[in-house]
Prior knowledge:
Number of strands: 16
CATH superfamily of the largest domain: LmbE-like
Largest sheet: 7 strands, mixed
Helix content: 25-40%
Strand order of the largest sheet: 10-9-8-11-12-16-13
CATH architecture of the largest domain: 3-Layer(aba) Sandwich
CATH class of the largest domain: Alpha Beta
CATH topology of the largest domain: Rossmann fold
Number of domains: 2
Radius of gyration: 25 Å
Order of helices and strands: EHEHEHEHEEHEHHEHEHEEHEHEEEE
Distance between the termini: 72 Å
Amino acid sequence: MGRMRAGSGRVLVVVAHPDDETLSFSSVCPGADVALVTNGNWLGRGAARAGEFRAACRLLGVRSALRFELPDLYPHPLPHDELLARLRGLGRYDRVYTHSPLDSHPHHRSVSLAAAEAFQEAWIPAQGCRPTEVAVLDDDSFAAKLGIMNTVYFKEIFAPDQSYELQSQDIGAVEAFSRVSYPEVVRALALTRHQLRPELPDVWGFETSPYEAERLDLTCRLLAEAIPGAAPWVIIEVGACEGSMTERLSTAFPAARVQAVEPHPVFAGRLRRRIKHCANVEVIEADAVAVDLKADVITFAEVLYYLVPEAANRLLARAEAKHLLTSNYPGYDDQVVRWLSSLGWRESKAATLPPRFEPIDSRSSIIARRVGTTIRMWRRLT
C-alpha cells in the first residue's frame, strides 16, 4: 500500500506545526486541504517555516494549504475558542485527520480537542489506540517522505543548540489512524492530563470503566468493614463529583446522613439530580475549605492530589472525625501517609487496586492508563 485516500469527499488535515503534516499524515495529504494552526515561530523561524510548509504541501499533492497563524508559544496551550471558530469556518468535511489527545506536545492536544469539537469526530494517529485504518508506505511513498524531510525540513533534523531536533524513530513507514468521537477526546484529556470539559457528563468514565467500578465497590467494602453500617453516623464525602460514590454510600449506610461536598456547579447539579431519591444525602455546593469538616467519617477519595501540597495538608489538618478514608495513586499515597501520621492518625485497614490499561469507555479505541490506587482507613490515635 502506498498513499491512502479516505474515499470520495472532502478531506481535511489539521496540524499544529510545519513538518507535522509530513511526519504523521503524509499518506492522507494528497488531494486534501491541510490547515496549519500555528505560525511556527517558537524558535524565531516563523517566516522560513511557513515557506517550508508550503513547499512540503506542494510535494505531498495537497489541494489547499491553509494557515491560521496562531502564536506558537510553547508550552502554553493554544486559544481554544479562537481555534474552534477558525475550524468551524472551514465548512463541512467528510473526514478530518488531526493529532492525538494522548500526544505529549500541548499544542497537539489543543488541536486535537478543537478539531474533534468542531467536526464531532476525527481520525487520529493510533499510538495508544486500536487502529481502524492503516497505511504501509511503499518504497516510492516512503522515499518521498524522506525526501521532504531531507530537502525541506532538514534544519529540524539536527539543531546545534539541541533546542529541537528530530530522531530516526520520528520517521515512520506505517501511518495508522483511529476514528474517535469528540467525547472520547475529552475523556482522554481528562484521564491523562486532568484537562476537564465539564459539559460532558461522566468525563472520567466512572459509569463505564471496570476499573472505576471496582475501585468504588472496594472503597465501600473497606468502609463497611471499618464502621457499623447500621449506625446513624454522619459521613462527609469531599469531592463528590457527579455522585457515583455518593449513591453507593447512601445505599451502604442507609441510617447515616451523607453530606456530599462538591464545589463545581455543573457537577453539583448532576449530583443533585442523581441522588434526588436518596433521602439521607445532602449536597453541599462549596469548596471543602469552606465546610466545617466534623463528622464520624470523612472520605478523601481521589481528590487530594488536585490540590497543591500545602492546601492538601491544611485540609487534612482540619478534619475532625472518628475515621478518615483516603484513596490515592502510588507515590502520592506515600506523602498522604506521612501527613496523616504526623497529625496523629493511624491506619486501621488498607486495600490496593493495581494499575491497568483499558478503553476510556466501553466502546472507545483509545486506551487509558489507570494508575492504580491504595485505599486506606484511618483512626485518630488517642
